[in-house]
Specification:
545 residues, globular, alpha/beta, 33% helix, 6-stranded mixed sheet, single chain, 17 strands
């Protein structure tokens, strides 16, 4: 009898020890995703939290070499955008929506497993600027101008400025072939080899003081431009591009291959004053109508590569935009706001889907015809006693431009270009379907996640509404302060869309830690631990039995 009791006690002890160690054994046997390093480091472009220029957006990633990949699927804003083969590691997505966006690359393996690169958030803007070399000093305006929240720039030349760590240096550069005075074939080849994918062609060829080229001569280079493999912008004329028999129309009719987008320059002249028969709002309406007419005539995306307010018809007694008249300065500020943001039922440049990009032209602040359009004093101003403000310091109009054309939720860099990295949305880890929970547990998790998502959606909607208002106030009323960053619900929308489209993305959930692949019921664990404690208690008090 004593022997049986002893055997029973030993059995209880062994069972208790086994049950107590079961969670540890489960953890040891759990499998982690072997592709985690690739998932979290593969995406190279667009950069996390970056403001990129509208149009074709480069998506680049490192190939997954540790598995047999069948294809890569690229998801843009939660929707399957395109599929490329297993040897391709770059493509483009297209948008002109000034907004926050997400991109994700999925490696589809030959066994049909899916490996998701972490989802990245970035921002899109159309706003750019022409930075030019200046005769009165060795440096150009890129080197000293304060940060203006731009996404791209050009300089009327083929090469970018060789300047790093200045406020506006981290921008996409778009080269231009100014005229036919250089070896165009050679330049186009070098641009393609340097990694550029687009080029602006001749600058104001219809103007004797600029490129000054006949439309037939310009059209004769059409094959040269398009055989380069670059996306080609039309010559940007100084005259009206929609009137009958204009330079651009005649050039266009000569082309065998039409240019990829239309480049436009426009200076509206006198824009009026509030309270008069012709107001800045009227001038903005005329400007936007003109841009719309250009698109309708040529059926191509539009870039406005130069626009500003200037009175070229000024005479000795009339200089409304020389910068010395507050009411005219304010009219230019209103005009800029109306043109970019729209008004009443009129869509502005940011909301016109056929407008890919725009760039204000910043005159010298002491210019007699366009001083009111200056975004900052330049070196020409520095040599004049009439100049106000320090070199490169933003004017009131410059501050307005800096705070315009930005996606909601984007946080402006500081004026010196430095970035508060805490405002950048981190990449979102996506759990691959094959490393998710079992079907039964997943059904339970779906219900919980949906409830949680509903709660998060309400909270995020409230936060977005608050941040949106705060951001608008920061952008419009406090130009030197940064807007608040907001969280995105795009992943939830992506999840819902992919369920409906049977993309097998239902199982993708945000990761708080890497899944082990094995799950254990909490109730079962508690029962095991309780049984273990009873066994230990019996062993400890065996003499009493």
């Amino acid at each position: 009898m004593m022997k049986n009791k002893k055997i029973k006690k030993i059995g209880v002890a062994l069972l208790s020890a086994a049950l107590l160690l079961t969670p540890c054994i489960s953890s040891v046997q759990a499998k982690e995703n072997p592709y985690d390093d690739w998932k979290t480091t593969a995406l190279q472009s667009p950069q996390k939290g970056k403001l990129v220029a509208a149009g074709g957006i480069d998506v680049k990633w490192n190939l997954l070499t540790s598995a047999k990949v069948k294809q890569y699927d690229i998801y843009f804003d939660g929707k399957l955008e395109k599929t490329v083969d297993q040897n391709t590691n770059e493509t483009t997505v297209y948008t002109t929506e000034v907004s926050k966006h997400t991109v994700r690359v999925v490696a589809v393996l030959e066994n049909k497993d899916e490996v998701n690169v972490s989802e990245r958030t970035f921002y899109v803007s159309k706003k750019g600027l022409g930075f030019y070399n200046e005769e009165n000093g060795a440096s150009n305006s890129l080197s000293y101008a304060q940060n203006m929240g731009l996404s791209w720039y050009y300089n009327w030349g083929e090469q970018p400025f060789d300047e790093e760590d200045v406020a506006n240096s981290d921008l996409e550069f778009v080269p231009m072939i100014y005229n036919d005075a250089t070896d165009i074939d050679s330049w186009l080849d070098s641009l393609k080899n340097a990694g550029y994918d687009k080029v602006l062609s001749f600058n104001e060829p219809d103007y004797v003081k600029e490129a000054n080229m006949d439309y037939k001569v310009s059209a004769s280079y059409n094959e040269t431009f398009h055989s380069s493999g670059l996306k080609v912008g039309s010559p940007a004329i100084s005259g009206n591009a929609v009137e009958e028999d204009n330079w651009l129309e005649k050039y266009w009719n000569e082309l065998d291959t039409k240019d990829d987008f239309i480049a436009i320059h426009n200076y509206p002249g006198y824009i009026g004053l509030d309270g008069t028969d012709f107001t800045p709002k009227d001038a903005a309406k005329n400007f936007l109508d003109y841009i719309t007419n250009v698109h309708e005539k040529y059926q191509k995306p539009v870039w406005i590569t130069e626009f500003a307010v200037a009175a070229f018809e000024s005479n000795a007694s009339w200089h409304p935009y020389d910068g010395d008249h507050d009411e005219h300065n304010e009219a230019v500020q209103e005009f800029m706001n109306y043109v970019i943001n729209g008004f009443d039922d009129v869509a502005g440049l940011d909301d016109l889907s056929f407008v890919e990009r725009y760039a204000w032209f910043t005159f010298a602040s002491t210019s007699g015809v366009g001083g009111s359009s200056a975004l900052f004093p330049n070196k020409e101003d520095a040599n004049k006693t009439r100049a106000s403000g320090h070199l490169g310091e933003l004017t009131v109009l410059g501050e307005i431009y800096r705070n315009s054309g930005l996606p909601e939720g984007y946080t402006l860099p500081e004026l010196d270009g430095s970035i508060d990295t805490s405002t950048i949305i981190e990449d979102k880890y996506i759990v691959d379907p094959q490393y998710n929970d079992s079907d039964k547990d997943l059904d339970d998790k779906k219900d919980n996640d949906i409830k949680g998502d509903d709660k998060n959606t309400v909270n995020n909607d409230k936060k977005d509404e608050t941040d949106g208002k705060d951001g608008q106030e920061n952008n419009q009323q406090k130009p030197l302060q940064n807007t608040n960053n907001v969280s995105s619900n795009s992943s939830d929308e992506s999840k819902s869309q992919e369920i409906n489209n049977d993309q097998k993305q239902t199982d993708n959930k945000e990761k708080s830690s890497v899944k082990t692949g094995d799950t254990t019921s909490y109730v079962f664990l508690l029962l095991m631990m309780f049984t273990s404690l009873i066994g230990i208690f019996l062993l400890k008090n065996k003499n009493e039995y």
